[in-house]
Amino acid sequence: MGFFDSFSRRVCGLAALSASSWLFAEPGDYLGLDVLSARCGGTVSYGDGGRCGTVLGKDFELQCRLDDVCYCLNGVNVYGQCVVAGQPGRLRIGRDDWDRVIVPLLSPPTVAPPRRICVDPGHGGKDSGAKRAKGNLEEKNFNLDVAKRLEVLLKKREIEVILTRSDDRFITLEDRSAIANDAKCDLLISIHFNADESPQAEGMETYILPRQGHSSTARLNDPNADDKEFYVNNRHDEKNLYLAYCLQREMKGIRFAIDRGVRRARFRVVKNADCPAVLVECGFLTNSRESDRITDGNYRQAIADALCEGICTYGGLK
Ligand SMILES: [Zn+2]
Description:
single chain, binds zinc ion, six-stranded mixed sheet, Copper Amine Oxidase, Chain A, domain 1, Aminopeptidase, five-stranded antiparallel sheet
């Protein structure tokens, strides 16, 4: 069960509104939670000394936190582009985030069922990717394993699968998106496992390309971030977001998995893909607990299952 299973544009008064008619009624770049909740017939409540706000609508729950840039929409973390402003008990969220992140997820785009999907096992050959601290295990092999498991699942759904590699070989990042484009794939899913200097870092992330002129999630506070270029994949901004949301929602549902959210980065593998494209980071090899799970084939199968489910939700194949 999930949000989109029961959701329709018709039942949600908020989403039925066009994103332009009233969102700009209030002056300034931010919208108060009280205004938003009133407009959608919902209620607003606060916790944590007023620093955490919740808007509860008919079919959705939106949580946000003062000075934070990550929203929780129906239980899934999604990074926006604007830090939540206001004062405790009177939070205001960026109008652009509301318009371009939250409303599109409450009222998702119409999507044709994908018939051909490019599954990209990250790294390969001389490029090992992240390494597990103990046991000398390499990311490239886990990526390929999950990709092959996903291939089996998608083929059972009669979806054609193009793997960018089916063995341990090096492929450039540009060639990976070129493979997807040449085969006219409907989606590109690049599969990775993560690494961090901190052994505490743990959990699942799904990355999409930032919108033109917007910063990557990791550089939101960097005034020198140069993010002005329009990439081919920016044609698919709205579908990228919805696909990432569907995948992240399923991955966070895996037992023990931690939700690190839908994020944005200009990864080379996605930015030139002329179809909706995501890069999933399925856990940290540098976290001993998580890497123990990743070495378990049952856990990797659960990841592949989640990715397949997310794709099917996205494509209306359920
Ligand atoms: Zn990687």
